[in-house]
Amino acid sequence: MSVEDQVAPPGRAATAVEEPDADRLDLPVVLAALADPGRLAIVRALAECGEECCVKVGEQAGLTVGKSTLSHHLKVLRESGVTHTRTQGTHRYVSLRRDDLDSAFPHLLDAVLAWRDRS
Amino acid sequence: MSVEDQVAPPGRAATAVEEPDADRLDLPVVLAALADPGRLAIVRALAECGEECCVKVGEQAGLTVGKSTLSHHLKVLRESGVTHTRTQGTHRYVSLRRDDLDSAFPHLLDAVLAWRDRS
DNA sequence: AAGCTGGTCCGATGTGTGTCGAACTATCCC
DNA sequence: GGGATAGTTCGACACACATCGGACCAGCTT
């Protein structure tokens, strides 16, 4: 019952991108996802731009990487359970899974977001 | 023949193990240090055994790795600023740098330690 | 329909990391 | 002194990962 639709049946299911269930979040995996400076910047940008944000968050985060690299980072964040991705047409809207993260690891996201890099 | 006049002045300096200053802790580095399950187990064991703990924390943490691997993990934790290491004789006592971590990343350590793995 | 375009996937590549055993260092104890 | 012992360091190895360009696929747009 955990996995409703396995591999996108021909029916609807359009927006199904694999994301772990809220009760299956793994701390080491999440920490590893957040340990990359680029991904951390993305998460921070997502937190700042409110509810939902288009993939251009890469630009907003000041990322200077190629398309495929950005896609890879978003995939890591998505599969670790940090972000949710909604597909609409050719666009993808990314958002932080704040509630799920807060319930699985209380205050973790706050602690991470509170950090300011003094370079 | 290896180290003629390298470092090691004839004086004291004994217990100097490299650890970053409290105001130089880097979040991605700390997160990466905590992202390894083995190191996370060590940190948890350190938190449970109070103030200071000998290196046998590896056993207490249930680590089944070799000496060199354990040494490596402790080095990563030390150099990331998560732990403090005090040398006494042939023994090394490891402790969490709770204060420094809490002041640099408030609630981060608490959030990490609060997590319980349901396997 | 035909093309454009946002985004993913695929290979390749260089770099980092976890693991080990063995060699080495330093300290303690008899 | 001469071991014995705690711990680090040194290759070495396999594997994972960040990065890239280009191929590919699916919706828009005209």
Provide a descriptive summary of the structure in words:
With 119 residues, chain A is of the alpha+beta class. Helices cover 44% and strands 12% of the residues of chain A. Chain A has helices at 27-34, 37-48, 57-60, 67-80, 98-104, 108-114, and strands at 53-54, 83-88, 91-96. In chain A, helix 1 runs antiparallel to helix 4 (67-80). Chain A binds a DNA duplex (30 and 30 nucleotides) through residues 36, 38, 55, 65-76, 87, 89-92.
Strand order of the largest sheet of chain A: 1-3-2
Rg from alpha-carbon coordinates of chain A: 14 Å
* Average residue pLDDT of chain A: 83
* Largest Cβ-defined interface: A-B, 20 and 20 residues
Number of helices of chain A: 6
Shape assignment of chain A: globular
Structural class of chain A: alpha+beta
- What is the first-to-last residue Cα distance of chain A? 48 Å
**Helicity of chain A, as a percent range:** 40-55%
The major beta sheet of chain A can be summarized as:
3 strands, antiparallel
> What order do the helices and strands of chain A follow?
HHEHHEEHH
Low-confidence runs of chain A: 1-14
Quote the beta fraction of chain A: 5-15%
The protein's oligomeric status is: homodimer
Q: What is the number of E strands of chain A?
A: 3
